[in-house]
Design a protein that fits this description.
By secondary structure, the protein is α/β, with parallel strands linked by helices. Helix content is 37%, strand content 15%. It binds 4'-deoxy-4'-aminopyridoxal-5'-phosphate (PMP).
């Protein structure tokens, strides 16, 4: 496969952009390959600057649930661009998108638009702290909520000891307010809440963890998290940046029938433009400025181009049969990959996970239920698998700990081609 132009651009990019990329995982570091510079995309396919074509399962890390350049989204953006791209004043579009979110997501009564998932979680945490007058936050091992200071934190040595920063540049004084517990372990959470629950402003969680591979909550786990937080007046924040409008029209909370106090969104609600949002109970949301005392703002928040892209995307998702079809295609892909792994003689070394249109193959024989299980994966074997898939025109996430997304644009032919390619790639990775 010729990647000459991508290589040249990467070298040039490194002169002007740290690491040559604007978000670290794009650099393909952990898979040892050249990042493909993308020239265009349509439906389920992307093309790089050397003219190579790929079936895309990254889908811009989740937003492109309708596939790339969906006609109705593109049309909406074009029409709006003619009318201006930002006013810094209220528009009818933001009211419309807010209303759609409130109608689709069961727990959300009011919603505030921001520009990224990171901004959404950062603002939700501040709001929870302002509302409760408490400082501590509980998060889960392996959970990712963007690059917010308070959330780039891992567990210290004991369960309820101070958290420690996972990046230089975060004062220990910030990190110490964050407590990290393992996912799918209700006793660990209970212990912390019993000890310091009255000082805890929020528990923030991805209801299905999708940044440590794919970790699905065990039966009854989320219900218990809801109970424990409610008992102590702790704000339960569901980070639905990935699961929102993905697991079901109302996200993970509708899928599992749990009512969080606040929810964070991003990705899909922007239809591929930079958007985030956080919302929830009126009583809490009204604590935000200008109604309430907690400050939060944004020059480009509710940007009309982003709003129209979000509206058009959600309109498509409201059509009948969309989620069923996404699920069926993903089932087909998962089943096909399992068969391919069996043929390649590697099945026993793998762990397959899927929920609705999100899926993953971990290169471990452990049944992955938490972050520590995920870390047992053979990342070298994944890298070999990844490179062989890419070479055959299948673009997977360049990391073992990221998932594959199905879009409405993926075809039966795409899936069959992916399965065939996987058989070859699994064989290559089988001996590692
Ligand atoms: N929360 C979750 C669950 C995410 O997956 C991400 C991004 N992958 C974020 C928050 C941060 O979103 P953004 O990259 O838009 O800041």
């Amino acid at each position: 496969m010729n990647v000459r132009r991508s290589k040249e651009l990467f070298e040039e990019a490194k002169k002007y952009i740290p690491g040559g990329v604007n978000s670290p995982v794009r650099a393909f570091k952990s898979v040892g390959d050249t990042p493909r510079f993308i020239a265009k995309a349509k439906g389920s396919h992307i093309w790089d600057v050397d003219g190579n074509e790929y079936i895309d399962y990254v889908c811009s890390w989740g937003p492109m649930i309708l596939g790339h350049a969906h006609p109705s989204v593109v049309e909406g953006i074009k029409e709006q661009a003619e009318k201006g791209t930002s006013y810094g004043a209220p528009t009818e579009l933001e009211v419309k998108l807010a209303k759609m979110i409130v109608e689709m997501v069961p727990s959300v009564e009011k919603v505030r638009m921001v520009n990224s998932g990171t901004e959404a979680t950062m603002s939700a945490i501040r709001l929870a702290r302002g509302y409760t007058g408490r400082n501590k936050v509980i998060k889960f091992e392996g959970g990712y909520h963007g690059h917010v200071d308070a959330l780039l934190v891992k567990a210290g040595s004991g369960l309820t000891t101070f958290g420690v920063p996972t990046s230089p540049g975060i004062p220990e004084d910030f990190a110490k307010h964050t407590i990290t517990v393992p996912f799918n372990d209700i006793d660990a959470l209970k212990k912390v809440i019993d000890e310091v629950g009255n000082d805890v402003a929020a528990v923030i969680m991805e209801p299905v963890m999708a940044n440590a591979g794919l970790i699905i909550p065990e039966e009854g786990y989320l219900e218990k998290v809801r109970e424990l937080t409610a008992e102590k007046g702790i704000v339960l924040i569901f980070d639905e940046v990935i699961t929102g409008f993905r697991l079901s029209p109302g996200g993970a909370q509708q899928y599992f029938n749990i009512t969080p106090d606040l929810s964070c969104f991003g990705k899909i609600i922007g239809g591929g433009l930079p958007v985030g949002a956080f919302g929830g109970k009126k009583e809490i949301m009204d604590y935000l400025a200008p109604e309430g005392p907690v400050y939060q703002a944004g020059t480009l928040s509710g940007n009309p181009l982003a709003m129209i892209a979000g509206i058009k995307t959600l309109e498509e998702l409201q059509k009948p049969g969309v989620y069923e079809s996404l699920r069926e295609k993903t089932n087909k892909l998962s089943e096909g990959l399992k068969e391919a792994a069996k043929k390649a003689g590697i099945y026993d070394k793998l762990c397959f996970k899927q929920i609705e249109s999100i899926s993953i193959v971990y290169f471990t024989n452990k049944d992955v239920k938490n972050y520590q299980d995920a870390l047992t994966s053979n990342t070298e074997a994944y890298a070999v698998f990844f490179r062989k898939m890419l070479e055959q025109g299948v673009y997977l996430a360049p990391s073992q700990f990221e998932v594959a997304f199905m879009s409405t644009a993926h075809t039966e032919e795409d899936i069959e081609k992916t399965i065939k390619a996987a058989e070859v790639a699994f064989k290559e990775a089988a001996n590692l």
